[in-house]
Specification:
single chain, alpha/beta, Rossmann fold, Luciferase, domain 3, GMP Synthetase, Chain A, domain 3, 8-stranded mixed β-sheet
């Protein structure tokens, strides 16, 4: 009987077969190891990119299905579904009180029943909402959505002139105002009533003539839902919200937010790995896209819980996170800086927070945040309220706002083009087309407008929408959305924000329209001309407002009068902190005010020969900016 080790196998001795198999297995393992090392060295983010890309495609396929059929499932539909699926799950926690999905659903039904019963609104109309962060902001928002209304979120900081403008541009004929904000409308109530705008206040009793009470009626109303047909839409392009943003035109612009944009934003937390078990901390104002669409919309998409704060408090932040077992928090860069400026405490790493989602986080603050509070995954993203593109830094690289790998670039048609900062204009070649920047160079970010990346513009004025478009960019007839932001894409395909161009800058987490400030300064009898811009202040995010002004002949600078008019008519973030008195105003070759050199020169009195002033809230006046005042600002002794 032959020994099994010498029995031939397909004509070969078993020993040779085993040696061949061992050689093949060794080669396979070596190939796998080599491929793994090559991937780690040449494509270190391959797997993270792949997982993220699959998520984007999966979510996009769902939206594409909605677009191609009449089966449109909106954010409010998702909320109603979640309220039925998990009625007793906490949806909202506010000032220690928990509100379940069922409770907010029924509360919003009550709002809808009241406004429907009194014939206040019809499907398709626009209703303005002026409220601070509170549960009834969401109840009123959802109640109006259930009636098929578009809701215009009004910034609670804006003043009378701007507020009246907001109604005109979005066409709202009804206003719901929070209890604590009604008195701020007293000056313009006659104007609203003259324009036949019905005002409803979240109060039981009221002394203002012509204003309706809503709270008493809501408490007595039925919590039964109105007919689902009232909120049904057949197109994702139907407007659902108007969110106001400052721009180059001076007054706020009503960005049209359709259901498509709302659903895209709601998927953000999910794309970063959020789950139904997460508790999301939202200290940002609900009238902003981040809190309402990403925060509340994202909570609904996940079926999670949101801790809503009326206003951000750096001293309460980590105590709240511990108290409510927060796992994800929303931020803007300023918020994180405030947290890092708090006195160090022994228990500041004692929390369950695993992720922060937001934008505007400076690299130095990012590193300090990790040192102080642990290795929290900071998920930066980039996107404007009205924009047609979004970047997400799913890798977590410090200093980047997003990453665009090869596959993502196939889906998103964006470009960085050359921009002349001195002339404050886009560079075009001899054929009249824009020029791409090289990788690693700073350029103006543009995104092509097509069916995958539509731009819905602004309500009330076609010219405002057209001003955000750039045509004939690379070929005749093409159209791109102009973000107004300078970006750089590095060798690893990470996108980093560099600066804003034109007439807008960012301060205290808000966009400041320089034209609006300029127009107000022009109302002062002693100012002949004003040029408003933003300057960097050490230790602060964004840019602080500064105005170079020419004093009218025969007049003198009046710091008291300037203080009074800016505090009366401008929100706090838009008021100029610094004033520079000039004899002549520098302009560009196209007669635009020159800002670049003014921005570069800053506000240092030791290097600027022009008279400088600084706003002093204690003195309620603009005071001379001396060397000692300057030092107190840059050292952080004076709070801005």
């Amino acid at each position: 009987m032959a020994h099994w080790r010498t029995r031939p196998f397909h004509g070969l001795p078993v020993q040779q077969v085993m040696l061949f198999s061992l050689t093949w297995l060794t080669s396979l393992l070596a190939g796998i190891v080599f491929a793994h090392i090559t991937q780690r060295l040449c494509f270190p983010y391959f797997w993270k990119d792949l997982v993220y890309l699959i998520k984007v495609i999966r979510y996009g396929a769902r939206l594409e299905f909605y677009k191609r059929t009449s089966k449109v499932l909106t954010v409010i539909d998702r909320f109603v579904q979640e309220a039925r699926r998990s009625p007793n799950k906490p949806f909202l926690i506010y000032e220690g009180i928990t509100y379940t999905y069922k409770e907010i659903d029924e509360r919003s039904n009550k709002v809808a029943q009241v406004l429907d019963q009194y014939g206040a609104v019809k499907k398709g109309v626009t209703v303005a909402l002026l409220m601070n962060n509170e549960p009834d902001f969401i109840s009123v928002w959802f109640g109006l959505s259930k009636l098929g209304c578009a809701v215009a979120f009004l910034n609670t900081n804006i003043k009378s002139r701007s507020l009246l403008h907001c109604f005109n541009c979005c066409g709202a004929k009804l206003l719901v105002v929070g209890t604590d904000l009604l008195d701020s409308l007293e000056e313009i109530l006659p104007n609203l009533q003259e324009d036949n705008i019905s005002v409803w206040a979240m109060k039981k009793q009221i002394s203002h003539p012509g204003v309706h009470t809503l709270l008493d009626k809501v408490e007595q109303a039925s919590h039964e839902p109105v007919a689902a047909e009232r909120r049904t839409v057949t197109s994702l392009k139907t407007a659902t919200l108007y969110i106001f943003t400052s721009g180059t035109t001076g007054l706020p612009k009503a960005a049209v937010i359709c259901h498509l944009q709302s659903l895209k934003a709601a998927g953000g937390l999910w794309a970063y790995g959020g789950t139904s078990e997460d508790v999301i901390y939202t200290p940002l104002p609900l009238y902003h896209t981040a809190a309402s669409l990403i925060g509340i919309g994202g909570t609904i998409e996940l079926g999670a819980t949101c801790v809503l704060k009326k206003k951000f408090s750096a001293s309460q932040f980590w105590n709240d996170c511990r108290k409510y077992d927060v796992t994800i928090f929303q931020y803007i860069g300023e918020l994180c800086r405030y947290l890092c400026n708090q006195p160090e405490a022994e228990n500041e790493k004692d929390h369950k927070v695993r992720m922060g989602v937001g934008n505007g986080l400076r690299p130095d603050v990012w590193k300090e945040l990790h040192r102080r509070f642990g290795e929290i995954r900071m998920c930066e993203f980039y996107g404007s309220t009205e924009g047609n593109l979004c970047f997400m830094n799913h890798i977590g690289k410090i200093g980047a706002v997003g990453r665009c790998n090869f596959f993502y670039k196939l889906l998103l048609k964006y470009n960085l083009v050359q921009y002349d900062m001195v002339k404050d204009e886009i560079v075009r070649n001899e054929k009249g087309f824009c020029e791409h920047v090289k990788q690693g160079e700073t350029g103006l970010l543009l995104c092509k407008i097509n069916s995958q990346s539509p731009f819905f513009g602004y309500a009330g004025n076609k010219e405002l929408t057209e001003n955000k478009l750039l045509r004939n960019v690379f070929v005749k007839g093409d159209a791109y959305f102009n973000t107004g932001d300078l970006m750089v894409e590095d060798q690893e395909d990470f996108i980093c924000f560099k600066d804003r161009v034109g007439d807008t800058f960012r301060w205290k987490g808000e966009n400041v329209a320089t034209t609006e400030v300029t127009e107000l300064l022009g109302l002062l009898d002693f100012i002949q001309e004003a040029n408003v811009y933003g300057v960097e202040v050490p230790g602060h995010e964004g840019r602080a407002g500064m105005a170079a002004v020419i004093v009218r002949p025969g007049c003198s600078f009046d710091g008291k009068k300037l203080f009074n008019i800016t505090t009366a008519y401008l929100p706090s973030y838009a008021r100029p902190l610094f004033i520079r008195i000039q004899e002549t105003m520098e302009i560009t070759g196209t007669f635009k005010q020159q800002k670049f050199r003014l921005v570069r020169s800053g506000f240092n009195p030791s290097t600027i020969t022009d008279p400088l002033y600084f706003v002093d809230y204690n003195e309620q006046c603009y005071i001379p900016l001396t060397d000692s005042v300057y030092e107190s600002i840059v050292s952080g002794q004076r709070k801005l």
